[in-house]
Amino acid sequence: MSIKRLLLVEDDRPLAELVGFHFDRAGWAVTRTGDGEEALILSEEIKPDLVVLDWMIEGISGIEVCRRLRRKENSANVPIIMLTARGEEEDRIRGLETGADDYMTKPFSPKELLARASAVLRRVRPAIAAGALSYAGIEMDLAAHRVRRDNAPLQLGPTEYRLLRHFLENPGRVFSRQQLLEAVWQHSEEIELRTVDVHVRRLRLALGEPDIIRTVRSAGYSLDAAH
Questions:
Q1: Phi, psi of 153 (to 5 degrees)
Q2: Which position among 9, 57, 141, 165 has the lowest Cβ density within 10 Å, counted as fewest Cβ atoms?
Q3: Range of the domain at 27
Q4: Tens digit of pLDDT for each residue in 62-84?
């Protein structure tokens, strides 16, 4: 099973440590913060598979963090579970209407939160929960780090693998070169945009025909079997 990334936004340190411990033990990579502004920055940097977000945090509120995450293209579809001491029905409805996928009232069991996280991930991002991605005959086993197309194994370099994974997680969506740099390359500010073109060409060669990577003039690239 591939490592899933959790962004935990909770300013109660003992609770954050307890929740982080349970997720870490379950194989998640956990990034913690108790500050709303920092949470928005971290969401861009680590691209979490799930956000667990407390309603009452330092800086901007959890409900506002949720709202802003939903407005951003890169985080619009990231599953969010809200934590709060508020148990009133109106508050639960407000949280869900703002964009949260699930809601837990304190105090809660960390084991139940883990179960809810797995359930949300299966519902919202089933491919990641299953540890595999597939599209148009391409199959990527995230645990074994193997790729096949029409049942034939493919040999990909590390960068081409990461690039293909990003495309497979977002089929049909157009990404600019800058967006691909930020998503696939570490220290992307040190790399030229034309590097993306080089690795897209290598990925196309490795995938073979038919070519399902669409070049969108003046925009970027998309994994699109229909073009």
A1: -65, 145
A2: 141
A3: 4-128
A4: 889 998 998 887 787 788 998 88
Residue 145 has pLDDT above 90, yes or no: no
Question: CATH no. for residue 158?
Answer: 1.10.10.10
pTM (predicted TM-score): 0.58
> Does residue 210 have a cis peptide bond before it, meaning omega lies within 30 degrees of 0?
yes
Mean pLDDT of 130-152: 86
Counting Cα atoms < 13 Å in the Cβ hemisphere of 217 gives 0
**Domain tally, the chain:** 2
**pLDDT for 1:** 42
Q: Is the pLDDT of residue 16 over 80?
A: yes
Q: 95, 128, 161 — which closes off a domain?
A: 128
User: Which residues, other chains included, contact 105 with Cβ-Cβ below 8 Å and sequence gap of 6+?
Assistant: 84, 85, 86, 87, 92
Do 179 and 203 share a domain, yes or no? Answer: yes
Q: Average the pLDDT over 212-221 and give the result.
A: 90
Same domain, 123 and 145: no
Residues 119 and 14 in one domain: yes
